[in-house]
Amino acid sequence: MNLLKLQPLTDEYLESIGFVWHTDEDNSSYVADEVVEISEEEADAFYEATNELYDMFCEAGEYVIENDLFHDLNIPFNLVEIIKESWENDVHWHLYSRFDLAGGLDGKPIKLIEFNADTPTSLFETAVIQWALLKANGLDEASQFNNLYEGLKENFKRIITLDSDIEKFDEYYEKLGWKILFSSISSSSEDINTTKLLQHIADEAGFNTDFEYMENVEFADEGIFANEQSFEFWFKLIPWEDIAIDESELALILAEIIKEKKAIIFNPAYTLMFQSKGFMKVLWDLYPNHPLLLETSFEPLEGKKQVEKRCFGREGANTKIINEDGSIDVETDGVYEGHKAIYQEYVELPTDSNGVTYQAGIFYAFEACGLGFRRGEKILNNMSKFVGHIVK
After folding, report:
1. Segment 178-220, tens digit of pLDDT
2. How far apart are CA 224 and CA 101, in angstroms?
3. Distance (Å, rounded) from C-alpha 256 to C-alpha 219?
4. Using one digit for the tens of pLDDT, what is the confidence trace for 99-136?
5. Residues 160 and 178: beta-carbon distance below 8 Å
6. Does residue 307 form part of some domain?
7. How far out from the chain centre does Cα 100 lie?
8. 247-252 contacts, C-beta under 8 A, 24 or more apart
9. Rounded to an integer, what distance in angstroms lies between the CA atom of residue 108 and that of residue 217?
10. What percent of the chain lies above the pLDDT cut of 70?
11. DSSP codes, 150-166
C-alpha cells in the first residue's frame, strides 16, 4: 500500500464549510494528512464490484419479501408492512448508501463486509473533504474515484423522473412543485451538517427545501408538517430501527402516511432490510461461494476464523473476532447486545507499513460513485480516521 503525505486542511477552513467534527476525543485529527494511492484498475474494480453487489441486494430483497424472512433479519415487526409498501412502489427511491469492503488493494480480492444502506456516515468526508484536500495541495482534485456530489444531485432529480433519464426533471418538477423537508436530531453536529449538505445538494438540483429538527416535525395521518407547511418528501438522518424501537407510535403513523401516499420518505423503509447484517446470510444462501461474498451464518462457523456481530450494531460495537479454535482474538462491548448475532468469515483488511488496517467505503447513488477509507484497529470504531485517496 502506498500513502501520499499531504499538508492537512486547517481547522478554520474545515469549520468554515461546516465540517466541525474534525478532532477526536483524544485531540487527534479525524481526517488523515495523507491519502491512499490507487490505480485506475483498482478504482474500476471497486466500481464494478459495488454495482454488482447492489444488483445482488435487489434480487435478494425480493426473495426476503416473497419468503417473509423479516424475522430472520431481526426486522422489528412494526416495520414489516411499511417495508413491503415501500418496496412495491417505485416512487420510494433509494437515495444513497455505502458499501464497506475488504481488499481491493495490492491484488487482494474485494469482499463485502456490510452494507450501510439507511443512514451511512462519512458522506461529507467523501464528497467534499478529500476533494478539498487534493485541491489545497495543488493536486488534480479530479484524480479520484469520486463523483458522489454530482451523483447525489442527479439522484435527487430521479425522485421526480423515476428514471435514469433526468433531462425531464425541470418539466416534471414545474408541474408538481413538490418540497423536501430535511431532518436530523438536534444533539449531533455531524448529523445536522451532513443533513444540511444533502439539503444544499437538493437545492442545487432544483428542489424547494426546508430543514427542521426531528423533535419539531409534526406527523399525522394527513402527512408530514413543519414550519407551517406540509411536505411531500421527508429526508431523515435517523435509522429506521431506532424509529421502530424507540418511537413505535411514530412508526405506525409513518406506515399510514406511506400507505395513503401522503408523503415519501428517504431513505425508504426497505433499506432496513439491506442495513441488517443478517441480509448477508441471505446473500450467501442465494449466491454461495460468490467471489465478492464472505460465508455468513446465524450459527458459529465450524473450523474458521470468523467475526461475530449484531444485525443492527454500529461503529464496531458488540463485535468479536473469533479464532479457529474458538478463542477470542479481540472484542468490543456496546449497546447492541439485544440484537441477533451473525457469524461472518474473517478476512484480513489491507494494512500499511505500521500494521494499521484500512477499509474501503464505496458510496452508491444510482451507481457506485465515491471511494473513501477508514483507518484504525482490527475492529473499526468511532475513533477510526478518515483517509482520502488519489488515483495515480
Report:
1. 899 999 999 999 999 999 999 999 999 999 999 999 999 999 9
2. 36
3. 10
4. 999 999 989 999 999 999 999 889 999 999 999 999 99
5. yes
6. no
7. 9
8. 248/78, 250/219, 251/76, 251/78, 251/79, 251/82, 252/78
9. 47
10. 100
11. HHHHHHHHHHHH-SS--
Whether the pLDDT of residue 16 is over 80: the answer is: yes
Query: Is residue 312 within 8 Å of 131, Cβ to Cβ?
Result: no
The strand pair at 264-266 and 208-211 is best described as: unpaired
* Half-sphere CA count of 337, side-chain side, radius 13 A: 5
Ramachandran class of 134: left when φ > 0, alpha when ψ lies in -120 to 50, beta otherwise: alpha
Of residues 386 and 175, the one with the higher pLDDT is: 386
Q: Which pLDDT tens digit goes with each residue over 336-380?
A: 998 999 999 999 999 999 999 999 999 999 999 999 999 999 999
Task: Classify 138 in phi/psi space as left (phi over 0), alpha (psi -120 to 50) or beta.
Answer: left
For all residues of the chain together, what is the average pLDDT? 95
Q: How confident is the model at residue 51 (pLDDT cuts 50, 70, 90)?
A: very high
Residue type, 319: T
Question: Does residue 59 fall inside a structural domain?
Answer: yes
Between CA 281 and CA 292, with CA 287 as vertex, the angle to 5 degrees is: 85
How many other CB atoms sit within 10 Å of the CB of residue 150?
15
User: Does the pLDDT of residue 224 top 90, yes or no?
Assistant: yes
Q: How would you classify the pairing of strands 31-38 and 2-5?
A: antiparallel
Cell numbers representing residue 292 in the block: 465478492
Number of domains in the chain: 1
**52 grid coordinates:** 454488482
Q: Which residues pair with 23 in a beta bridge?
A: 29
Q: CA-CA distance, 132 to 155, in Å (whole number)?
A: 23
**What does the chain come to in residues?**
392
pTM above 0.85, yes or no: yes
Residue range(s) defining the domain that contains residue 262: 1-294+347-392
67, part of any domain: yes
* pLDDT reading at 175 higher than 80: no
CA distances from 162 to 154, 232, 359, 368 (A): 11, 15, 33, 18
Nearest partner of 385 among 15, 29, 103, judged by Cα: 29
Structural element, H or E, at residue 257: helix 248-259
In a domain, 171, yes or no: yes
